TrEMBL record:
<feature type="transmembrane region" description="Helical">
    <location>
        <begin position="371"/>
        <end position="400"/>
    </location>
</feature>
<dbReference type="InterPro" id="IPR018083">
    <property type="entry name" value="Sterol_reductase_CS"/>
</dbReference>
<keyword id="KW-0472">Membrane</keyword>
<keyword id="KW-0812">Transmembrane</keyword>
<keyword id="KW-0753">Steroid metabolism</keyword>
<feature type="transmembrane region" description="Helical">
    <location>
        <begin position="109"/>
        <end position="128"/>
    </location>
</feature>
<feature type="transmembrane region" description="Helical">
    <location>
        <begin position="291"/>
        <end position="311"/>
    </location>
</feature>
<dbReference type="Pfam" id="PF01222">
    <property type="entry name" value="ERG4_ERG24"/>
</dbReference>
<dbReference type="GO" id="GO:0016126">
    <property type="term" value="P:sterol biosynthetic process"/>
</dbReference>
<dbReference type="GO" id="GO:0005789">
    <property type="term" value="C:endoplasmic reticulum membrane"/>
</dbReference>
<feature type="transmembrane region" description="Helical">
    <location>
        <begin position="140"/>
        <end position="157"/>
    </location>
</feature>
<keyword id="KW-0256">Endoplasmic reticulum</keyword>
<comment type="similarity">
    <text>Belongs to the ERG4/ERG24 family.</text>
</comment>
<keyword id="KW-0756">Sterol biosynthesis</keyword>
<keyword id="KW-0560">Oxidoreductase</keyword>
<keyword id="KW-0152">Cholesterol biosynthesis</keyword>
<feature type="transmembrane region" description="Helical">
    <location>
        <begin position="12"/>
        <end position="33"/>
    </location>
</feature>
Length: 434
């Protein structure tokens, strides 16, 4: 079941799982501490840890406070209610490996609009000041770390005792089951999809909410917002808006259609996205760099172009699949491979692989603009410190690993047809290079 078992050697798989399980939580706290209390300087934090040792680290780890739990609970309940009750078109996800077809309510864009309007209105009318969120950020991350671990234990138990569909199963190993998850489409009741909640409505939504929070905090602190912060916030918001605009398309991607609900995906979306993905903005709060209008506009334009290309790659693939290849790709009939595969229940099905347009440049070309966009919303921080660039580095490693995982999975799914695709489109990510 869980893909990672087949991709790397067992020793490397266990090593990386255990490392990520143990190192990610303290890393989130160290990143927050460095951004907020150590001027974004890794060296400063390193010196502090050298002087104070483990006790020093325990001292900087904020305890989850009542206000942190309250903020998280209100936000989670609000997002869950929007997911359940806002109207939206019914859409079907892709056929699962067990031959099921999950059904979703596509109300992400509405939820996104309601969330941002509500948050800004609370601030505007003086009901709630988002700067409070920044002031309690460490406690919030601490609460998220522990709360999400408990949530992943719940997912593990649910996978064993009450799976929502036949797309579930145990690898026979407790660490793999906990880390990679057991259920592909866990639900509470018939309609509340847990992965839509964790990945989209909690994780991705928190990215936009925190981007706005950082901007407001800088405004409250300095009475104005630096152009670097504006460029960063606008680009991150354009990216998240694109995500919700295309949310139903996201339900066809690896995260939802292949990765099971466990620590990797769910803890990642509940903790890693709100902390690490938003970190360039977190850095800018107390580093109000002035870029000047011209440079700010160039960076903004470059970032928006990358986000658009990334969107267009995803759109092209999905339009091609949706129309069964009867569409135009860059103004021409698409070139394609008709690939057949066998589901776990033994049925033979066929699928189309696009070999022109963006998908003819390399097999995962869409990762190039994704990484560049992240670079462009970080570069307003300029080059005083390395830490704001951690997300770009992390994303690059994540996507290069993901391209390998996806290639391996597709090779075992499509066999000779995938080989044919690789012969036709030789490069994995960067055309002509890799
Ligand atoms: P996708 O799921 O969109 O694409 C991979 C899948 O598409 C494959 O598993 C295969 O699935 C199908 N496929 C592969 N090649 C072709 C082809 N030539 N023609 C048609 N279908 C093909 O990839 P991702 O989930 O990785 O990416 C989706 C989006 O999310 C991207 O924009 C990416 O940049 C972004 N992303 C962002 C991350 C972040 O942390 N910021 C992390 C990961 C992704 P099938 O089994 O259906 O054939």
């Amino acid at each position: 079941m869980a893909e990672a078992k087949t991709v790397h050697s067992p020793a490397l798989t266990y090593f990386s799982m255990i490392s990520l399980l143990t190192l990610c939580p303290p890393f989130v706290i160290l990143l927050w501490y460095t951004m907020v209390h150590a001027d974004g300087s890794v060296l400063q934090t390193w010196d502090y840890l050298k002087q104070h040792g483990v006790q020093g680290f325990i001292d900087i780890w904020p305890r989850p406070t009542a206000i942190a739990w309250k903020l998280i609970a209100c936000y989670a309940a609000f997002e869950a209610a929007l997911q359940l009750f806002l109207p939206g078109k019914t859409v079907e996800g892709p056929i699962s490996p067990c031959g099921n077809r999950p059904v979703y309510k596509a109300n992400g864009m509405q939820a996104y609009a309601v969330t941002l309007i509500t948050y800004l209105s609370l601030w505007w009318f003086g009901i709630f000041n988002p700067a409070i969120v920044y002031d309690h950020l460490g406690e919030i991350y601490s609460a998220l770390i522990f709360g999400s671990l408990i949530f992943c234990i719940f997912l593990y138990i649910k996978g064993h005792v009450a799976p929502s569909s036949t797309d579930s199963g145990s690898s026979g190993n407790i660490i793999i089951d906990f880390y990679w998850g057991m259920e592909l489409y866990p639900r509470i009741g018939k309609n509340f999809d847990i992965k839509v909640f964790t990945n989209c409505r909690f994780g991705m939504m928190s990215w936009a909410v925190l981007a706005v929070t950082y901007c407001i905090k800088q405004y409250e602190e300095n009475g104005k917002v630096a152009d670097s912060m504006l460029v960063n916030t606008i680009l991150m918001l354009v990216y998240v808006t694109k995500f919700f605009w295309w949310e139903a398309g996201y339900w066809n991607t690896m995260d939802i259609a292949h990765d099971r609900a466990g620590f990797y995906i769910c803890w990642g979306c509940l903790v890693w996205v709100p902390s690490i993905y938003t970190s360039p903005g977190m850095y800018l709060v107390n580093h109000p760099v002035n870029l000047g209008t011209q440079l700010a506009i160039y960076i903004l334009a470059a970032g928006i172009t990358c986000i658009y290309i990334n969107y267009d790659c995803d759109r092209q693939r999905q339009e091609f699949r949706r129309t069964n290849g009867k569409c135009l790709v860059w103004g021409k009939a698409p070139s394609k491979i008709v690939a057949s595969y066998t589901t776990t229940s033994g049925e033979t099905k066929s699928s189309l692989l696009l070999t022109s347009g963006w998908w003819g440049l390399s097999r995962h070309f869409h990762y190039v603009p994704e990484i560049l966009a992240a670079f462009f919303w970080t570069v307003p921080a300029l080059f005083g410190h390395f830490l704001p660039y951690f997300y770009v580095l992390f994303l690059t490693i994540l996507l290069f690993d993901r391209a390998k995982r996806d290639d391996d999975r597709c090779r075992s799914k499509y066999g000779k047809y995938w080989k044919k695709y690789c012969e036709k489109v030789r490069y994995r990510i960067i055309p002509g290079i890799y």
